[in-house]
Design brief:
about 290 residues, alpha/beta, 2 domains, seven-stranded mixed sheet, five-stranded mixed sheet, 9 helices, globular
Length: about 290
């Protein structure tokens, strides 16, 4: 039921049917109110200077855009940095240091999937999850970092930072709930827009491939994977941040008579200890030279 609702909403935002377009039109008064409130929120916030370089990477719309691999690409050139994110999908709350400069300190249920990707992909970075980004920044400073990357924090207008936004293509340019936009590019807000093909390109490496693979993934808008996919027996989509169980994955393997499950890194960090044969679709971003 949850999966069906999530996929319905994704279709409504990015590839609506006629009836969904009618619903979107009917909700326009709420969208205008929502957008006005977001603008008012922006105008009434005063940015706090934390005395270190802070960069936020995100997008204006709901759903996936590739911000995690972009943060990894940007942060990998920094020697003494921290990644701070909310930690969607985790079973914990509050502030947790997922990784210090040397060691992963918790499991994926505490960190959430995206934070654990950073912990594995950025061996020299501090990784912190915290609903309160300011508390996360303070903790990172206590740990001696000299720069911070915020995952998806454009809306944190009370933090002095550089904002990078990934351009997301959609024909629906309305604010919630009529469309996918959480906020607008407000006048007076300085941002850098990163566009695929101009500023970066995606590179995918297929690891541990087998003859028969079943795709299993829990990322937002999973159809984004289609251009990178090898031939698979089946495509099995779950809601973003879904917590897999071993039996449900074993059932897919048995049903398809597959040799392995093909997963993204976001899925891999949640299922790597299940003892199943995994093939990995490892997506990375390569920045274009300026």
């Amino acid at each position: 039921m949850k999966n069906s609702l999530v996929f319905w909403v994704e279709k409504y935002f990015y590839n609506p049917s006629f009836l969904q377009k009618v619903l979107s039109f009917c909700l326009l008064p709420l969208s205008f109110l929502y957008c006005f409130l977001m603008w008012l929120r922006f105008k009434t916030k005063e940015a706090e200077d934390f005395g270190i370089d802070i960069v936020s990477v995100g997008n204006l719309t709901v759903g996936g855009s590739g911000k995690t691999p972009l943060v990894i690409a940007l942060a990998s050139s920094h020697e003494n940095t921290a990644i701070i994110l909310r930690g969607y999908g985790r079973d914990s709350s509050g502030l947790h240091v997922v990784k210090d400069k040397y060691t992963i300190l918790c499991d994926v249920s505490v960190s959430g999937d995206e934070a654990m990707i950073y912990a594995h992909k950025l061996p020299n970075a501090v990784v912190i999850v915290s609903e309160d980004r300011k508390e996360g920044i303070k903790k990172a400073k206590e740990m001696g970092v000299t720069s911070v990357f915020l995952d998806d924090a454009y809306s944190k207008h009370d933090i002095k930072k550089k904002d990078i936004l990934i351009e997301v293509k959609t024909s629906n340019n309305k604010c919630l709930p009529s469309g996918p936009y959480r906020e607008r590019l407000w006048k007076g807000k300085e941002v850098s827009i990163y566009k695929e093909g101009r500023d970066f390109k995606r590179r995918v490496e297929l690891k541990n491939a087998t003859q028969k693979m079943s795709l299993v993934t829990a990322i937002a808008r999973p159809e984004r994977l289609d251009e990178f996919l090898p031939e698979v027996v089946s495509k099995n989509y779950f809601a973003d941040h879904h917590s897999f169980t071993k039996p449900e994955l074993e059932e897919i393997l048995q049903r398809d008579k597959s040799d392995s499950l093909l997963v993204t890194y976001k899925d891999f960090v949640k299922v790597k200890n299940f003892g199943l044969v995994l093939s990995l679709l490892d997506l990375e971003i390569e920045l274009k030279a300026v």
